[in-house]
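hiii so um. not sure if this is the right channel but i have a protein structure encoded as C-alpha cells and i wanna go backwards to a sequence. like what aa goes where. can anyone help
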C-alpha cells in the first residue's frame, strides 16, 4: 500500500514556501497551516524564517500561538506601512483617543454649565443695553 503525498502529507505553509520537507515535529506546522499561505509569507518577508524559527523554539509551547499572532499582525502592518509599521496604527489610535477625550471634556463642561443655569434662580439675564453714543462736536469749518 503506497501513500501518495498529495493530500494527507502536505507540508505546512512555511515548509512549502521554504521548499523543504515538513518533518513530524515541525515548529511551524501548528501555526502556519497549508491553507493560509499568506500568513507565513508576510512573517517570512519581514522577520525571516530562521528568526521566527529561533523565536518559537525559545518560547514555551503555550505562548507560541500568541507570539505567532503578534508577529503576523506586526508583519502585515509593516507590509502596509513600511516606515511606521504598527506604530502608525498605534499613534493614529492615540490621536483619536485624545480627540475623543477633548470632546468628552467639552460635553462634561456643557453639562455642568446647564446644571448651574437650571439650579440657580438668581441668574437673570438683564440685558439693558444703554446705547451710549459720545457727543459729536460739530466741526466748524474755519474759513
Ligand atoms: Zn512544516
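sure thing!! here u go:
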Amino acid at each position: 500500500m503506497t501513500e501518495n503525498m498529495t493530500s494527507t502529507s502536505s507540508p505546512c505553509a512555511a515548509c512549502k514556501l521554504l521548499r523543504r520537507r515538513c518533518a513530524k515535529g515541525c515548529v511551524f506546522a501548528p501555526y502556519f497551516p497549508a491553507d493560509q499561505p499568506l500568513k507565513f509569507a508576510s512573517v517570512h518577508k519581514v522577520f525571516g524564517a530562521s528568526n521566527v524559527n529561533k523565536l518559537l523554539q525559545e518560547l514555551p509551547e503555550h505562548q507560541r500561538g500568541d507570539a505567532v499572532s503578534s508577529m503576523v499582525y506586526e508583519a502585515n502592518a509593516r507590509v502596509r506601512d513600511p516606515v511606521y509599521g504598527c506604530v502608525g496604527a498605534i499613534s493614529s489610535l492615540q490621536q483619536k483617543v485624545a480627540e475623543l477625550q477633548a470632546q468628552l471634556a467639552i460635553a462634561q463642561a456643557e453639562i455642568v454649565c446647564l446644571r448651574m443655569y437650571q439650579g440657580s434662580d438668581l441668574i437673570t439675564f438683564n440685558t439693558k443695553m444703554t446705547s451710549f453714543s459720545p457727543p459729536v462736536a460739530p466741526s466748524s469749518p474755519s474759513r
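oh and The pocket of zinc ion is lined by residues 11-12, 14-15, 22, 26, 28-29 (CB under 6 Å).
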